[in-house]
Give the backbone structure.
Amino acid sequence: MALETEIKLIGVDHAALREALRKARARRLWRAFEQNLVFDDPARSLAARSVLLRLRDGAGGARLTLKRPVPEAEGSEFKVYDEIESGVSDFESVRALLEALGYPVAFAYEKVREKWRMGDVFICLDRLPFGEFVELEGPQDDVLACLARLGCEKALRSKETYHALNAADRRARGLPEQEGFVFEPAERARLLQELASE
């Protein structure tokens, strides 16, 4: 178990941030397409407790993750979760196992994530079907120092999940509610081809 402490930035230009990361001598780790499945029981009791049970296939293979909120961190400007995570060797077998236990797929989401590291802070440039965001994860003081070093200290910050940001975006655009967010097939194929050519 580990505490995950993160914050998201909204409206940051990825190209400019990438250049700032290079100048700061941050290390680019990888860029990959991620498929995520979120599981819950039919009563959605995990979501009611703000618990996330997720199976992800992306850089480094498949991973099963459980995230639970940390009540004592409620007043923080950062999102803080207790996180349990493990690599798995067979994505489809783990999916079948969860479904057999009574946790079907509640929804799916996709993103292209480009991951960097600066000291103890991980910086993720995320492209989702509804926009581009930046996520920083690490010790709070280090994240704040990283924001200043990258010239992002005044950027709009959020501790909302991507699921909540997607819901807000759909409401703002007058679209019907939809928990999942995946790329249109043509866009997914283009992104996969782009990643394969890197």
About this structure: The mean pLDDT is 95. The radius of gyration is 17 Å. The first helix runs from residue 14 to 23.
